[in-house]
Design the sequence.
């Protein structure tokens, strides 16, 4: 197989991978959104969420864990902004700029949510935290894929 | 030609014979309908207490409980009578046939006995008689209970607090400005009770509500994760916000009555003197042909509840009192109002309660087939089951009316309904253990208490 063909094949695989990851990110967010919506409609869902929120607060999502997650989001935002600026200055490649812009904005949006007092009061709060964490990590993977592509060029 | 004539003649004879037989059968069945004899008051009096006779009240449950409906002079039922309401025959229930047959069996209404069906409107007995005839009952009698009620010397029984459960006609008279029986003329408020905000609750705006009724969301009186009643000062604010004082006549109802009973128990605990629940729920209202409205009615707050909450402190109890009750094995009973499977720990009954089992020392008080129904305490039309049957059900488990009884379930809804029925029946030393299995089991991280699992040893 020629090098050009190999590169094209890799590009297609990466594109498909990114599409799949994006779909997974959307689906992951649907679960807590649905739970939060249903908490106003079904008593059983609300009571289940209240119970889970109580247990999560005591067992898994301790204040230290949540603090660590908040720090991760802030650091992630700072690093992404730095890299974005770096790329703008070097003007390397549109694809990677777009990807970094997306991950930066997503990181900042996530940080804003997680720091918000109103957000903490949501019954599906912990489910949202899990979803945001997974979505951010997946977005980092996509950004890395684009970074590698740029550097391969 | 001759052959055709013969065939036609044979056919004519056959048809005539068939018609004659059919005619005879019809007239035979007409005779059977007419064989429901009317009993005199003297005859009925002689039959009371006899084992081969059963006296059956076919009226609405409200009349049986104590209300003076259909112009009877005295309310209640003939002492010793059981109930089989004509209204039950019209219920839309997927297990209707089986439930009605089970009811007949439980009440001792069997084809071998002489069955006296009584009513006050001349129609209910006929409907039940027709149903029983179809089941092969032959020894049927009917009686007009107005005659019995006229004579004060003849024994009748009304539940001590029958007025806590009201009929749809009573509520209709109330909202129409008439002064129904037992209503003292003070300010009244009607509430539709269900879970959820008004805009999200399908029962209030989508199905419609009684004219003038305001919605109460059960989250206004309780909060998680234990789902106990709110603190006393928050309950006072709830009452003020809903325009309820100790002197308000409060009428509660719902598509499902269980939330109404939950709020009723809490209001009584707080100190509201006159709390009523619509017996049988909204279906009774719509079956009576009364209208519903779909426009929202806003709450009209008042400045003061009128007393320091709680006035009836012992009506709802907490964990320390529940432990005292369990410790007092002879004088008290902690009564488990959950299904058998929940009682023996086969299931917790709830998605949000993990532990299974029961408080050690709790006795089974019956409930329903699962955590969603209370069929052991309700008739097929969701009215209150009769007192004699409830007491008999309890007796099997050593529960007697003289004891101090605290009812509990998972989070206090089913138990609140049974508490209200116990109150209707006139029992004195009764309460609701609010924390229930959710609290006792340590489900939400609070300390667990002694637990039993499995069928209790005899």
Sequence:
């Amino acid at each position: 197989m020629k090098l050009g063909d190999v590169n094209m094949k890799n590009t297609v695989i990466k594109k498909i991978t990114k599409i799949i990851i994006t779909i997974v990110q959307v689906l992951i967010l649907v679960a807590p959104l649905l739970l939060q919506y249903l908490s106003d409609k079904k008593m059983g869902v609300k009571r289940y969420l209240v119970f889970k929120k109580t247990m999560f607060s005591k067992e898994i999502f301790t204040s230290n864990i949540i603090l660590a997650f908040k720090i991760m989001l802030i650091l992630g935002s700072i690093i992404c902004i730095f890299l974005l600026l770096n790329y703008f200055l070097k003007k390397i490649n549109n694809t990677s700029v777009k990807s970094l812009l997306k991950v930066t904005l997503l990181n900042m949006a996530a940080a804003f949510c997680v720091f918000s007092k109103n957000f903490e009061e949501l019954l599906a709060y912990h489910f949202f935290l899990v979803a945001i964490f997974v979505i951010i990590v997946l977005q980092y993977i996509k950004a890395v894929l684009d970074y590698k592509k740029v550097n391969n060029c | 030609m001759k052959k055709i004539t013969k065939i036609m003649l044979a056919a004519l004879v056959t048809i005539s014979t068939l018609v004659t037989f059919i005619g005879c059968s019809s007239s035979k069945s007409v005779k059977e309908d007419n064989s429901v004899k009317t009993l005199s008051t003297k005859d009925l009096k002689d039959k009371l207490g006899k084992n081969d006779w059963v006296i059956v009240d076919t009226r609405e449950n409200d009349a049986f409980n104590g209300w003076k409906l259909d112009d009877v002079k005295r309310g209640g039922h003939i002492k010793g009578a059981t109930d089989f309401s004509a209204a039950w025959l019209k219920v839309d229930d997927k297990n209707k046939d089986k439930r009605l047959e089970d009811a007949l069996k439980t009440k001792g209404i069997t084809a071998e006995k002489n069955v006296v069906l009584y009513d006050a409107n001349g129609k209910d007995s006929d409907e039940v008689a027709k149903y029983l005839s179809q089941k092969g009952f032959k020894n049927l009698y009917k009686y007009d209970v107005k005659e019995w009620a006229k004579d004060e010397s003849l024994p009748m029984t009304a539940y001590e607090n029958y007025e806590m459960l009201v009929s749809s006609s009573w509520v209709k008279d109330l909202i129409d400005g008439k002064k129904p029986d037992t209503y003292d003329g003070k300010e009244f408020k009607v509430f539709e009770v269900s879970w959820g905000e008004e805009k999200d609750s399908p029962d209030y705006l989508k199905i419609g509500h009684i004219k003038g009724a305001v919605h109460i969301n059960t989250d206004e009186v309780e909060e998680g994760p234990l789902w106990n009643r709110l603190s006393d000062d928050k309950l006072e604010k709830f009452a003020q916000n809903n325009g309820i004082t100790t002197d308000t006549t409060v009428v509660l109802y719902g598509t499902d009555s269980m939330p109404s009973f939950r709020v009723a128990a809490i209001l009584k605990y707080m100190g509201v003197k006159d709390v009523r629940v619509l017996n049988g729920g909204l279906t009774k209202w719509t079956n009576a042909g009364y209208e519903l409205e779909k426009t929202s009615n806003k709450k009209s707050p008042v400045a003061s509840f009128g007393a320091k909450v709680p006035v009836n402190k012992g009506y709802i109890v907490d964990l320390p009192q529940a432990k005292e009750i369990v410790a007092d094995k002879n004088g008290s009973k902690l009564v488990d109002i959950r299904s058998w499977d929940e009682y023996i720990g086969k299931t917790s009954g709830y998605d949000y309660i993990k532990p299974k089992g029961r408080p050690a020392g709790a006795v089974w008080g019956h409930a329903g087939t699962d955590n969603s129904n209370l069929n052991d305490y309700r008739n097929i039309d969701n009215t209150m089951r009769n007192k004699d049957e409830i007491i008999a059900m309890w007796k099997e488990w050593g529960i007697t009316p003289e004891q101090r009884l605290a009812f509990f379930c998972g989070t206090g809804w089913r138990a609140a309904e049974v508490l209200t029925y116990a109150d209707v029946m006139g029992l004195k030393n009764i309460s609701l253990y609010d924390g229930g299995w959710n609290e006792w089991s340590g489900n939400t991280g609070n300390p667990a208490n002694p637990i039993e699992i499995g069928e209790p040893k005899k």
Summary: Chain B touches chain A through 15 residues (CB under 8 Å). Chain B has a mean pLDDT of 93. The longest strand of chain B covers residues 188-194.
